[in-house]
Amino acid sequence: MFALCAGSGTVTLTATAPDELTQARREALQAAAQWYARLCSEEAGPEDEQALRQWLGSDPMHQWAWQRVDQLQARLGRVPGHLALNTLERAEQHVSMSRRGVLKGLALLLGTGTLGVAAYRHAPVEHWLADHHTATGEIKQLTLDDGTTLILNTASAVDIHFDVNERLVVLREGEIMVTTGSESSEDPRPFIVQTPQGRVHALGTRFSVRMLEAETQVAVFEHGVEVTTRAGAQSLCAAGQQLAFTADATSPPTSLVPTDDAWTRQMLVVQDMRLDAFIADLSRFRTGVLRCSPSVAHYRITGAFRVDDTDQALHALTKSFPVSINSRTRYWVVVDEKK
């Protein structure tokens, strides 16, 4: 037996002895990890999903390997295929699988260049080793030393660096909401949120920062912020406005939607949104693969949904649209046209 540790909970799985990890099982694990990475990619389509069904049905060992991928990524989030394979092989060889042990294995693989950080938009090693982080579907609130409130959205990670010169929050992944407190307003040190694209300087405010692949999005709910890109371009964003910036430039500020902060209350509120965009947003709060078939992507949706119960949100879709929720497992779900 071995256990994957994640936070306060563990999941115990049956493992084979080292000499029982046959070449056939190793190949099945490799294929399952590759299938998982393929379905998580932006290029995956219905034909890939059909091909996976055929692969799973062709051999019981394929189903066994796919379950191992399910079990692993359910605890560690969206681990890409090659990293999943490395960790799975260690598990099947009866290695002790504490979370720190898993991270060492992932770090080693990344360090050897087998799969570079650039090839995977999420950074699982940095994520789990950050000062504070949330798992997929988790939302966490922190109070910093200066009284500032920090809320981490799903699958987010930050490092906190306070010194005599500045109060710095480094956003490694995901999204945060910052509310500077009364103690913070009396602190002469600037409050900065840093991302790979630049810095956001708080001007006594409440604002959110979301990190995407090539840009950072900022939404200001009170007072204002000053954005400085890595190239030195600057822009002010006032209350009720939002903007995006890259390493080189900022977009013009536009009006934000008042409910854009609903996630801090465990809610996803949408107004006349395409169904595929809604599913993409909802998938941020759900472990595994959640996709929308192109045949139903054009439907428009309005409503409020709890992000801590994505199953309920998916069920609600079947009451409003001619769609079905097709689940191969809990961790692979497709919203498709109702037959």
Helix/strand structural class: alpha+beta
Helix content: 25-40%
What string, H for helix and E for strand, traces the elements in order? EEHHHHHHEEEEEHEEEEEEEEEHEEHEE
Radius of gyration, whole Å: 22 Å
Please give the CATH architecture of the largest domain: Sandwich
Distance between the termini: 42 Å
Kindly identify the CATH topology of the largest domain: Jelly Rolls
User: What is the total domain count?
Assistant: 3
Low-pLDDT windows of residues:
1-20, 75-123
CATH class of the largest domain: Mainly Beta
What is the strand content?
A: 25-35%
Mean pLDDT comes to: 78
Number of helices: 9
Biggest β-sheet description: 13 strands, mixed
Q: What overall geometry do the principal axes of the alpha carbons give?
A: globular
- Please tally the β strands and state the result: 20
GO molecular function: sigma factor antagonist activity
Protein name: Iron dicitrate transport regulator FecR
Domain FecR N-terminal: 30-72
Organism: Halomonas salipaludis
